[in-house]
Specification:
22% strand; alpha/beta; binds adenosine-5'-triphosphate; 38% helix; Rossmann fold; 11 helices; 274 residues; four-stranded antiparallel sheet; globular
Length: 274
């Protein structure tokens, strides 16, 4: 389905992503972890073509998307919708209009300028908001919503594109634990119910373990781990993050676990081992 082959990105002397290779043969939910500067955002941005690769290939269903231009490139960007840590909504615009912005790629400039949306799209936007539990806020300005609600609006906007892949760059990094849980559950449901692939950069191991089928670890631009959540042991985590004295698993926690407590003793033991 999606095959990333020896993908490299250089910024001057700096190699941000170094010959990254990743094969995704069926829809799944992947968490990418690694310390700040490991290359996680750069990798996602290359997949979406927000940034061009220096070398390597991205093949989607056999087609090289690194070479697409113009309309075809925009179509690919619709197929792999991106959501960001800071939501990137238009704060003063109402929620449903923000969601309808997800259709921009396939609308005329004139329709966009005058905010003309087909009724069918408006209904679909409201259905998606309803699915994400925020339809009651459809008429409010985006800025009036909590962070977690705003991120769900951003997910709704992404779903308007009917993407095959959702790329989420630190989707919960700005959220409190309760909102983080709601957003991660929404992404998980979208994967399970719709069969969409979700690739999320996550700064917390516990989130990756809890919600993802597969975890990819990056260090200094390279993929140094690619496996199942249960293979992500403390030793492996230490390698991914570097064995520096500044690393502790507790510091990578969103504390989502405090909401359920089930993993408490395991995590405490892990933290102690570090
Ligand atoms: N536009 C750019 N110009 C120059 N260097 C860049 C640029 N974007 C990223 N880098 C560098 O590439 C490396 C990887 O950055 P990237 O943002 O992909 O890491 P990350 O793992 O996503 O980190 P974080 O978790 O802090 O977002 C870093 O050293 C960063 O400084």
């Amino acid at each position: 389905m999606l095959r990333i082959q020896k993908l490299t990105k250089r910024f001057g002397d700096k190699t941000a992503v170094d010959t990254a290779t990743l094969d995704i043969d069926k829809p799944c939910m992947i968490g990418i972890i690694g310390r700040s500067g490991a290359g996680k955002s750069t990798l996602l941005r290359m997949i979406n073509r927000l940034g061009d690769a220096s070398e390597g290939q991205i093949l989607f269903e056999g087609r090289d998307v690194t070479r697409l231009k113009g309309r075809e490139k925009r179509a690919w960007q619709s197929d792999c919708a991106m959501i960001f840590q800071q939501f990137n909504l238009v704060p003063r615009m109402d929620v449903v209009s923000n969601v309808l912005h997800g259709t921009l790629n396939r609308r005329s400039a004139l329709a966009t300028m005058f905010n003309l949306y087909p009724m069918e799209d408006i209904h679909r936007a409201i259905d998606i908001l309803d699915r994400l539990g925020i339809a009651e806020h459809a008429a409010k300005r985006a800025e009036a919503l909590s962070g977690g609600q705003q991120q769900r609006v951003a997910i709704a906007r992404a779903l308007m594109q009917d993407p095959k892949i959702i790329l989420a760059d630190e989707p919960i990094a700005s959220l409190d634990p309760m909102n983080a849980q709601t957003v991660m559950e929404a992404l998980r449901r979208i994967h399970e119910e719709d069969g969409r692939t979700v690739i999320a950069n996550l700064h917390t191991l516990d989130t990756a373990r809890r919600y993802c089928d597969r975890v990819v670890g990056m260090r200094d631009g390279r993929i140094v781990f690619d496996g199942l959540p249960e293979q992500l042991t403390t030793g492996v985590a230490r390698e991914i993050y570097g064995a520096g004295a500044d690393f502790s698993e507790a510091a990578t926690s969103t504390e989502i676990e405090t909401l359920t407590r089930t993993e408490g003793p395991i995590r405490e033991a892990e933290a102690a081992a570090l």
